[in-house]
Write a structure and sequence with these properties.
By secondary structure, the chain is α+β, with helices and mostly antiparallel strands. It folds into 4 domains: about 90 residues, Uridine Diphospho-n-acetylenolpyruvylglucosamine Reductase, domain 2 (2-Layer Sandwich); about 120 residues, Uridine Diphospho-n-acetylenolpyruvylglucosamine Reductase, domain 3; about 120 residues, Alpha-Beta Plaits (2-Layer Sandwich); about 80 residues, Alpha-Beta Plaits, CATH 3.30.70. The protein is built from 16 helices and 19 strands. Strands 5-6-10-8-9 form a 5-stranded antiparallel β-sheet. Strands 1-2-4-3 form a 4-stranded mixed β-sheet. Strand 18 and strand 19 form a beta hairpin. Helix 1 packs antiparallel against helix 3 and helix 8 runs antiparallel to helix 10. Bound molecules: flavin-adenine dinucleotide.
Length: about 475
């Protein structure tokens, strides 16, 4: 619907007439948490935050902002790690919140799909699928807060990518509001549809720069009847990959997670995070957390994992291992894995990377990257951990023990650049799952082929010629 243009100053009142005054937030105290990103690196300002309650309201709000030439910043759970949902400091933008778009419109168990609105909390969708005896596999530590719209906009990864793929692969159809306010209904529930460009993929991973996702049709999967998890010590990362191949061969498609943990990360977790316990008696240099899921519930999957670990032990690829005996032990393994993130905060400042290289290249990458950063900052303590089975590591660097945190963080960009250069040598990605946001716009442009940037700019310009949708993020058109 065409909105009568209003001036930027009159916009909050015009938006209130669409969504109701109580859904336009201008109070500075209420706005404040929406202006700072999760890691508190980016501070922004905004005219107001608006919370439409339906896709149609969303379309009218966007049309009104576009008519007033006011930039817009889509915001979901605001858990993104690269500053994508934080407005720029100029205060020109309106924040478009999806919080009230939180309905599951349909769950079709027979079709293995659910049609959900963008503001649904990820954990709520997992529960809805489970209630229908299905699995929605997207899972990440922020799942109690992040929203499916944000997950799709960042093409989130998380813990089950190995088996089920990233957020992108969970989507059959999409509904989105274009930067001029047109509402596109692409909510197809089909597994086969070869009728031209796959437009939904444009919005997935675009971080809100091409439009606002308002709803999606998500794929559901059969619920695994059996889950088994093991915490295994390995002598080095190469051995971890030998174990990975063995587990995959033994359990076919059932390996859902294969996570790497370094001893230093484990030490930090054990020291700083409550309710953590080393599952193994001895200290070892590296660990993997393996999870397999699927099967028929007859215990066969657990036996296959146990056999794979036993065989790997005989060849020296595994030094020791603990198999979870029950759900509590499995949760304890995962708690240890997640504790590494929190524990780093207690050990001082961290310089972070979210990189991917081909799985087979991970050992060689680490052999180059670790000495490189140690040479740049003597005493730095690397904590490379994460999704080894996807070739995606959080190559985080904890400051030297007695260093000044500010002086260490001042090295962030220099260290990032050096690590990313090594990543590029392995044909890797400088942002495996967190996106580009504000943080990596320059680095992204440094590594993408010129023709790729040109194609991205052409798409951006054709959908958003006035650069109103999440400006300053992903690309500078
Ligand atoms: C503790 C923690 C653990 C995490 N673990 C992982 C992990 O394992 N894997 C991983 O991939 N990520 C992880 N993340 C980061 C991840 O990107 C987010 O958690 C999540 O996917 C973003 O969802 P959100 O709703 O919070 O989006 P927001 O932070 O609100 O937004 C993220 C981006 O998407 C845009 N956006 C939001 N909603 C929409 C929409 N409806 N339409 C268009 N654009 C939109 C925003 O403008 C912004 O650019 C983690 C974050 C935290 C805090």
């Amino acid at each position: 619907m065409a909105e009568a243009p209003v001036s930027a100053n009159d916009l909050p009142a015009a938006l209130a007439s669409i969504v109701g005054a109580r859904h336009v937030v201008t109070d500075p105290a209420a706005l404040a948490p929406r202006l700072i990103d999760w890691r508190k690196r980016y501070h922004g300002a905004a005219r107001c935050l608006v919370e439409p309650g339906t896709a149609d309201e969303f379309a009218r709000v966007v049309a009104a902002c576009a008519a007033a030439r006011v930039p817009m910043v889509p915001q979901g759970g605001h858990t993104g790690l690269v500053g994508g949902s934080t407005p720029l400091p100029d205060g020109a933008s309106v924040i478009l919140s999806t919080r009230r778009l939180n309905r599951i419109r349909e769950l079709d168990a027979r079709n293995n799909t659910m049609t959900v609105e963008a503001g649904c909390i990820l954990a709520d969708l997992q529960r809805a699928a489970a209630d229908a005896d299905r699995l929605f596999p997207l899972s990440l530590a922020a799942e109690g807060t992040c929203q499916i719209g944000g997950n799709l906009a960042t093409n989130a990864g998380g813990l089950n990518v190995l088996r089920y793929g990233t957020a992108r692969e969970q989507v059959l159809g999409l509904e989105a509001v274009l930067p001029d306010g047109r509402l596109w209904n692409g909510l197809r529930r089909l597994r086969k549809d070869n009728t031209g460009y796959d437009l939904k993929q444009l919005f997935i991973g675009a971080e809100g720069t091409l439009g606002v996702i308002t709803a999606a049709v998500l794929r559901l999967h059969p619920r695994p009847r059996e889950t088994a998890a093991a915490f295994a010590a390995v002598p080095d990362v190469d051995a971890a990959l030998r174990l990975f191949a063995r587990v995959q061969a033994a359990t076919a498609e059932s390996c859902v997670s294969f996570e790497l943990l370094p001893r230093f990360g484990l030490d930090l977790a054990l020291r700083h995070v409550a309710d953590t316990r080393d599952p193994l008696a001895e200290r070892h240099p590296w660990y993997v957390l393996v999870e397999v899921a699927g099967g028929t519930g007859d215990g066969g999957l657990r036996t296959a994992l146990e056999d794979a670990l036993g065989e790997a032990h005989e060849t020296g690829a595994v030094l020791d291992a603990a198999l979870a005996e029950n759900a509590g032990q499995r949760a304890a393994f995962w708690h240890l894995r997640e504790a590494i993130v929190e524990a780093q905060r207690h050990a001082g400042a961290s310089i972070k990377h979210d990189i991917a290289v081909p799985v087979s290249a991970v050992p060689a990458f680490l052999e180059r990257a670790i000495p490189a950063v140690e040479a740049m900052i003597p005493g730095v303590r690397p904590v490379p951990f994460g999704h080894l089975g996807d070739g995606n590591l959080h190559f985080n660097l904890t400051q030297p023990a007695e260093a000044d945190p500010e002086a260490f963080l001042a090295e962030w960009e220099r260290v990032n650049a050096a690590v990313h250069d090594i990543v590029a040598d392995f044909d890797g990605s400088i942002s495996a799952e967190h996106g580009i946001g504000r943080m990596k716009v320059g680095e992204n442009a440094r590594f993408k082929p010129a023709v790729e940037i040109e194609m991205m700019c052409a798409i951006k310009h054709s959908l958003d010629p006035h650069n109103l949708m999440n400006p300053g993020k992903v690309i500078e058109p």
